[in-house]
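pinned: reference chain
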Amino acid sequence: METKKKSPLLRLWDMGEEEHGKLILAIVLAVIGVSCSMAAYYSAAQMIIGLLHGNQNISFYLTWCAIAFAGYVIKAVLYTLALSKSHQAAFSIMKNIRIQCMHKLTRVPMGNLLDVSSGQMKQLIVDQVESMETPLAHLLPEMTSNVLAPLFVFIYLLILDWRMALITLISLPIGLFFMSFMMKDYAKKYQGSVETAQKMNTAIVEYINGIEVIKAFNQGKNSYQKYADAVKANAEYFYQWMKSCQLPSSASRIVTPSTMITVLPFGLWFVMNGSLSVESFIVIMILAFGIIDPLIAAMSFTDSLAVVGTIVDLVEGLIYAPEQNHGNIPVQFEDTAITMKDVSFGYHEGQEVLHNIDLNIMPNEVCAFVGPSGSGKSTITKLIAGFWDIEKGDITIGNYSLKQIPLSQLNQKIAYVSQDNYLFNDTIMENIRMGNPDADDAEVMEAAKKAGCHEFIQSLENGYQTICGSSGTHLSGGERQRIAIARAMLKDAQIIILDEATAYIDPENEAIVQKAVSSLVKDKTLIVVAHRLSTITEASKIVVVNKGRIEAIGRHEELLANNALYKQMWQAHIGTREEAL
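pinned: its structure tokens
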């Protein structure tokens, strides 16, 4: 039997489980506060009744004035306390959700992330989570109190005269009827606004990140047009949406507060035929003003209520996204032997890029992958690093399937350096220290020396305290790569993967790094994706990859003699070197 899905508001409530105490307190305080505001209306009714009866006792009126004033003061104090508690809870819940989202990103397959632009991810974790503040901090306490408090007053009106109590609410369903036109497909329209905002965010981030290319190739007009179109589309969507809401919203706001249109004529008729006392009529008439105002305030949250489902769906879509298959119990590795058994893989379903890969990499072996661009070299190394779950076959390290190894333990076992290395907007010292957070400054500097980047770091004005800039933009490509290699050296993992990690390093520094890598990988397994074949001629195993399959495995001399593709690549490489010389 299919389990019925909880309502969006209940799912939002569940997300804030650790803050339920504060939210309940906020709701209770808000309910009491709104109820106290009714004291002013009741006091006004009593004073009018006093005047009608000719009561000239000034203390009588002062007492009711004091009660009315006290009601407003208590309401203000309790309302402030309620909002304080609800906002404390809301921001705590939002903080926890964002932390959950960031933790989740480390556990979902890389493919899930590559299919989503950075602009969309930013909108989800920043903007959509931020939009939960209104439902949590306002909708729960304020809407609840603005419904419950009038309910208590309505019960009191039923006691006074059930007919007048019902007449008081006649305008409410009419107002809700008009509002229903505005709320029709509201969630769907909000989802559309989210999608246009995602496209706008993506265009903005793309424009900013690509500004160097835009300027270099004089694409300012075309790129700006794409950015401007996305911004205009977002604005136009909201304009048309709000335009469609104008008439029903106006009608609802006009009709809903007009309780006196029904209360006055019916009340006077009941008084004239003797079925309602003047005193009760006055109390009902005054309280009718008070009962509608909170309900109108509650109705103002209906748009938030309508979009809660979309917001919760988006956030839960990330928080509860399928995680990679990894064990929870640490394993005891016998060695670092890596085996790929009949591995096939595709980034998207039905689009295989690797086919039936069988490979053994022995402990402490230097294994190099070569092949044409797009052949699948980097994909193989990323599968070994555990970035994706494989669809067919198995990969083992030390006789343990990757699915058995806890992700944290696998990350400790492998140091991965790619061609496109990311540096955080922090000091060079801290970027290198990410390889081993427990390392002291001396150990960080030693790793930098081995990676051949100590001298250029020292030449910078602030040395190791130089801020790298967002994505390391204050440094050249070669400098960023050397820092990334230093980070891997500091990690001191047993398996080192260099995915074209020396692509941007000049020949002079490449020799330094190659020497450092040789020292680094002593008694370790080194896996290299090489674009310069001259750097891997001494590798104990070279794997030639072509069109997602392993075409040949051997040493440099063997492959030159027996594999046409490798020989062709080598001749092209030697020719390029000779031309450069």
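why pinned: The mean pLDDT is 82. The domain at 338-580 is CATH 3.40.50.300 (Rossmann fold).
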